[in-house]
Design a protein that fits this description.
single chain; mainly beta; 3-methyladenine DNA Glycosylase, Chain A; 3 helices; 8 strands; 29% strand; globular
């Protein structure tokens, strides 16, 4: 069952970033459905977060999507090559977002393998945000899509992780965020091989 649109309006981005672990992210492209279990996320805390694109209330053509009501996607290009998929959360004009950093392939594995030119048993197929997006066929055309539509959506398959199974560490690759780089706002499933590096407790 698709997640209720109200789910994304939760103003506690840290709660959502943890709660999304175990949820299943789907895409449908040219009639082909692929999906993966979310096993790693990062929370971005709106205008107060130095690591966020919306820090200080920055509004540009790129970041405007983040100011929408929660429940849409925010996709941007990183280093000119990797598309990164984020879930916009909270209420309108509160630009919280959650980066999906890794998925465990679940549905349409042959398609995922074709997109990534490797077997789905190989962790690198969907570990790291660029790989996860590519595995699901996500590119810039997925920006600002509603997450209860027919192209990209999330479902609850009853997969739950206890607090003991979830690791919280600092986010990756955000040294520019100064003291905010140290905040433990990256969450992943302990021992899951599809989690990106460093996958250490």
């Amino acid at each position: 069952m698709k997640l209720d649109p109200a789910y994304y309006l939760n103003q506690d981005v840290l709660f959502l970033a943890k709660d999304l672990l175990g949820k299943v992210l789907f895409t449908k492209i040219d009639g082909e459905i692929t999906a993966g279990i979310i096993v790693e996320t990062e929370a971005y805390f709106g205008v107060q977060d130095k690591a966020s694109h919306a820090y200080g209330g920055r509004r540009t053509n790129r970041t405007e999507t983040m100011y929408s009501e929660g429940g849409i996607s925010y996709v941007y290009l990183c280093y000119g090559m990797h598309h990164l998929f984020n879930i916009v959360s909270s209420v309108k004009d509160e630009p919280h977002a959650i980066l999906i950093r890794a998925i465990e392939p679940l549905i349409g594995k042959e398609i995922i393998e074709f997109r990534r030119s490797m077997p789905s048993t190989k962790a690198a197929i969907s570990a790291g945000p660029g790989s996860a997006a590519k595995a699901l066929g996500i590119d810039r055309s997925f920006n600002a899509k509603h997450l209860h539509g027919e192209e990209v959506w999330l479902e609850d398959h009853g997969i739950r992780y206890s607090d003991e199974e979830i690791v919280a560490t600092p986010r990756v690759g955000i040294a520019y965020a100064q003291e905010h780089a140290l905040l433990p706002w990256r969450f992943f499933v302990k021992g899951n091989k599809y989690v990106s590096k460093p996958n250490k407790v």
